[in-house]
C-alpha cells in the first residue's frame, strides 16, 4: 500500500545505493518540489549533498530568508547561497520585453549555478569524492509532459529558473518522479519540512522580474515586494490560501494614473491583483474573493506603498489570459 513512509524508505535506500560515497548537488528554487527532493536526498546521504540557492534579487519579501533559515533548520542541509542580485539587475537593465527578460534570467541563472558548482568541486579538493549527481524535483506530470523522460540530463526549460544546460555532465537523482503534487506535499510534511514550505503556492522561476510590466529596477522591485507582501498577508489572514491556486501581484510600471491624497494630486502606478483558482495551472478561473478582503488589500497598498495610487482586479480566465502577465 502507498504510504508516505514507504515512499521515503524506498527512496532513501535507492539513493544511498545510487550515490555510494560520492557527492551530489541540488539547486533550490524556494519552491515545494526542489525543497522536498533536497530533504529526501539529505535524509539519505547527509553531508554528501550540497544545495545551491541563487538569490537573483527577484524573490518576494522573506523568501530568501525562508530558505536560509527555515529550510536549513528543518533539514540540516549544507547550503550555498549565492547573492547574484547585482548581476541579474545589471543584465536586465533597459529590458522591457517579456521573452527577453525570461531569456536573460535563465541565462544568468545557469552561469551562477555553474560557478557555484565549480566552487563546490574546488572546495572538496583533489582528495574529495567527485560530485557526480544532480538532484531534480521532477514530478510525475513533468515526466509525462516531456514524453516519458530518459533519465539523462535533458531538463525541461521551465524547470526551476529557466533550465540548466543540456551538456551538464551529471547523473540525475529524481526521487519524486512517480509522485503528484499533493503526494509531494505529504512527503515533505512527513520529512518535517515547515508548513510554509510544504503548502507554498506556485511561484515562477523568473520571479518578480516577470511581474513588473516594463523595465525591472531595484526601486520597482522593492515597491512590488511591499505590495505583494501586503496582499499575501491579508489573503492568509482571511484564510484563503488553500482556496486560491496563487495570486500574482503585478506592477504596471509603465502606466501612471491621476489620484488624490490629502490635499494633493498624485500621479502613480497601478498594482494588479490576479487571484486565480486552478487544478493544474493549464486552465484557471479568476477567484471570486470577498469584497471586504479586496477592499482591505486595496486600502493598505495605496496607504503603505509609495508611488502606488490605484489597485485593480484582473477578472480574466485562462484562457484567454495566462496566469502571469508576462
Ligand atoms: P502561465 O502564466 O503560463 O503560468 O499561465 C502557469 C503557471 O506556471 C508558472 N510559471 C512559471 N513557473 N518558471 C516556473 O517555474 C517559469 O518560467 C514560469 N512561468 C510561469 C505560473 O506562476 C503559473 O503557476
TrEMBL record:
Region of the whole protein represented: 204 to 529 of 529
Cite the record's note on assembly. Homodimer.
- This protein is called GMP synthase [glutamine-hydrolyzing]
Q: Which reaction does it catalyse?
A: XMP + L-glutamine + ATP + H2O = GMP + L-glutamate + AMP + diphosphate + 2 H(+)
The answer, when asked if Nucleotide-binding is one of the entry's keywords, is yes
Kindly list the positions annotated as binding ATP.
29-35
What are the leading ranks of the lineage?
Bacteria, Bacillati, Actinomycetota, Actinomycetes, Kitasatosporales
**Associated pathway:** Purine metabolism; GMP biosynthesis; GMP from XMP (L-Gln route): step 1/1
Domain of life of the source: Bacteria
Keyword Ligase part of the UniProt annotation = yes
Amino acid at each position: 500500500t502507498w504510504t508516505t513512509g514507504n515512499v521515503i524508505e524506498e527512496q532513501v535506500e535507492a539513493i544511498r545505493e545510487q550515490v555510494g560515497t560520492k557527492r551530489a548537488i541540488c539547486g533550490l528554487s524556494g519552491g515545494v518540489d526542489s525543497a522536498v527532493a533536497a530533504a529526501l536526498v539529505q535524509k539519505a546521504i547527509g553531508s554528501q549533498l550540497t544545495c545551491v540557492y541563487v538569490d537573483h534579487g527577484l524573490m518576494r519579501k522573506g523568501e530568501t530568508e525562508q530558505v536560509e533559515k527555515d529550510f536549513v533548520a528543518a533539514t540540516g542541509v549544507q547550503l550555498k547561497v549565492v547573492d547574484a542580485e547585482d548581476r541579474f539587475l545589471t543584465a536586465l537593465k533597459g529590458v522591457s520585453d517579456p521573452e527577453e527578460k525570461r531569456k536573460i534570467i535563465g541565462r544568468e541563472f545557469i552561469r551562477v549555478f555553474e560557478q557555484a558548482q565549480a566552487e563546490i568541486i574546488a572546495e572538496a579538493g583533489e582528495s574529495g569524492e567527485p560530485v557526480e549527481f544532480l538532484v531534480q524535483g521532477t514530478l510525475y506530470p513533468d515526466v509525462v509532459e516531456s514524453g516519458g523522460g530518459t533519465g539523462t540530463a535533458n531538463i525541461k526549460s521551465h524547470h526551476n529558473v529557466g533550465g540548466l544546460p543540456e551538456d551538464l555532465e551529471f547523473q540525475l537523482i529524481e526521487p519524486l518522479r512517480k509522485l503528484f503534487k499533493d503526494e509531494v506535499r505529504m512527503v515533505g510534511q512527513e520529512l518535517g519540512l515547515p508548513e510554509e514550505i510544504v503548502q507554498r503556492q506556485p511561484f515562477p522561476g523568473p520571479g518578480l522580474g516577470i511581474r513588473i510590466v516594463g523595465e525591472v529596477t531595484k526601486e520597482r522591485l522593492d515597491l512590488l515586494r511591499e505590495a505583494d507582501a501586503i496582499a499575501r498577508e491579508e489573503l492568509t489572514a482571511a484564510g484563503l490560501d488553500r482556496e486560491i491556486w496563487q495570486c500574482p501581484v503585478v506592477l504596471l510600471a509603465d502606466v501612471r494614473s491621476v489620484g488624490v491624497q490629502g490635499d494633493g494630486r498624485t500621479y502613480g502606478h497601478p498594482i494588479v491583483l490576479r487571484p486565480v483558482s486552478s487544478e493544474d495551472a493549464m486552465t484557471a478561473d479568476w477567484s471570486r474573493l470577498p469584497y471586504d478582503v479586496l477592499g482591505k488589500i486595496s486600502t493598505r497598498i495605496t496607504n503603505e506603498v509609495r508611488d502606488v495610487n490605484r489597485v485593480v482586479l484582473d477578472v480574466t480566465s485562462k484562457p484567454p489570459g495566462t496566469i502571469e502577465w508576462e
